[in-house]
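Researcher: Next entry in the queue.
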Amino acid sequence: MNLIERIKNRTPLSDRKKGKIATAIGVACATILTLGVVTAPLGIALLSVGAAVFGGKALFHAQKTIK
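Model: Structure for this entry, 67 residues:
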């Protein structure tokens, strides 16, 4: 089963909730980073890492399927 098929399959409720929360946080980090609200180098680094980590976490939870 490839990645697209796994994402399209039914996902358990707990993983769906965790994935939605991780997606929201990742998108918020990426949006703040894109808008340029934060100009400190440390803030830019933390927002970049946050967007990548929470994006990966959302993808991880999206792959969980009900057997």
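Model: The longest helix spans residues 13-35.
Researcher: Noted, moving on.
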